[in-house]
Design a protein that fits this description.
The protein is α/β, with parallel strands linked by helices. It is built from nine helices and 20 strands.
């Protein structure tokens, strides 16, 4: 995130993965792009010189009254050299009620959720939409589209990085995809999992926080029209395919250069809290390649999160975080998972439960509602066969 994004948050030195988008900003974009650091190539190194520290604990604290599921180590307090806190939330898009909020004021779209998103040193979500204006939607049941001001809304809320490796990134076909890549390039907002070709789509995002070198990759494991027709190749744009050997190779290569590698996947069976066999198998492969944590979304419900016996961390699904519709059931349950990394491993985890309100915002849950969601979170963890605490 750029230094001007969240008051009180010092700039993080960034070496961006090349997204490789061609073209100009969308004609329909009325907001001036925010200046960004010049991107480095996929093999570019970490920024050097100067101290890299995360957000100070007092910058935008989460409400103290919000119950949370805490494991092993605290994830609050002053930033510690050699330790980094990364926050993850689930699916975000700007349709109907959330589109109305975006049009009214991009700076306030996330409302009270911004306090939780801004608290970790770095925060990441899944941006599940085409960033385009007009055009023809693909022939599918649901198609999502948002203007480039979506990036301003994310930045204002304290989000530092998004994945667009999902089944809605190309909802408006090749034209929409070209607009999306141009909007990414024009905004300077860090995005992984999509690009002008396979090299860009599978390229990690590299940054350094509190002296910790981070690498984050993303891909989609959802077999649908997007993966079938808009998977990035050697010469064509698209998203990263989680079934490709390129993903594992990207993690393995990133681990030679980074202290911590995280993979964020779009995967799972919709409306099912337990991970399926494809998720479990891919988690095995990514951990073997060097991923310290594997995070996911797509199922529209919370899925299990916790430690594997080998010490790596998996969070299978984080739910709908900023969403166009409420369902009055567990599809409205979500939250922010904050992981603390020290010496290349996850040593602490905090899940702060939230629930979609009438505005489509993942509002921090309190009282009995929070306890119910935390119970759901715990049940999903057991279904996934994961540990509540880091193995000794």
């Amino acid at each position: 995130m750029h230094a001007s994004a969240v008051p009180g948050k010092p700039r993080v030195d960034i070496a961006l993965a090349v997204i490789g988008a061609a073209g100009m900003l969308l004609a329909g974009c009325t907001r001036a792009p925010v200046p960004a650091p010049a991107p480095a190539g996929p093999s570019g190194g970490f920024a050097s010189g100067g101290s890299t520290t995360g957000r100070p604990s007092g910058a935008v604290p989460a409400p103290a009254s919000v119950p949370a599921s805490t494991s092993t180590a605290a994830t609050s307090g002053p930033a510690t050299p050699g330790t980094v806190r990364i926050g993850f939330a689930g699916d975000v898009h700007f349709m109907e009620r959330t589109a109305d909020r975006l049009a009214a004021d991009p700076r306030t779209v996330f409302g009270p959720a911004a306090a939780v998103l801004s608290a970790p040193d770095l925060t990441m979500v899944n941006l599940e939409t085409s960033i385009s204006v007009g055009g023809r939607p693909e022939a599918k049941s649901f198609t999502f589209q948002a203007p480039p001001s979506a990036f301003a809304a994310l930045r204002a809320a304290g989000v530092d990085l998004v994945t667009m490796a999902n089944n809605h990134a190309a909802d408006y076909g090749s034209t929409g995809l070209a607009q999306t890549l141009a909007a990414i390039r024009g905004s300077g907002f860090p995005v992984v999992g999509i690009g002008a070709d396979a090299r860009a789509a599978y390229a990690p995002y590299y940054t350094q926080v509190n002296g910790v070198r981070l690498a984050i990759v993303a891909a989609s494991q959802v077999r649908d029209e997007t993966l079938a027709h808009f998977t990035a190749s050697g010469s064509t744009p698209g998203i990263a395919d989680a079934y490709s050997d390129r993903l594992v190779a990207a993690v393995r290569a990133a681990r030679t250069r980074a202290d911590v590698v995280v993979a964020y996947l779009h995967w799972g069976t919709e409306y099912v809290n337990c991970p399926n066999s494809d998720q479990r198998a891919l988690a095995d492969r990514l951990v073997a390649a060097g991923a310290a944590a594997v995070i996911g979304t797509h199922a529209h419900v919370l899925q299990g999160a916790g430690w594997r016996p080998d010490g790596s961390y998996v969070g299978y699904g984080l739910g709908n975080y900023l969403w166009w519709h409420s369902f009055a059931n567990t599809q409205d349950d979500n939250g922010v998972l904050t992981l603390t990394f020290t010496h290349g491993r996850v040593v602490g985890a905090v899940f702060q439960p939230a629930r979609l309100d009438a505005r489509g915002i993942g509002v921090p849950a309190t009282g009995a509602g929070a306890q119910r969601i935390l119970g759901e979170w715990e049940q999903a963890r057991r279904c996934a066969g994961l540990l509540a605490d880091a193995p000794r």
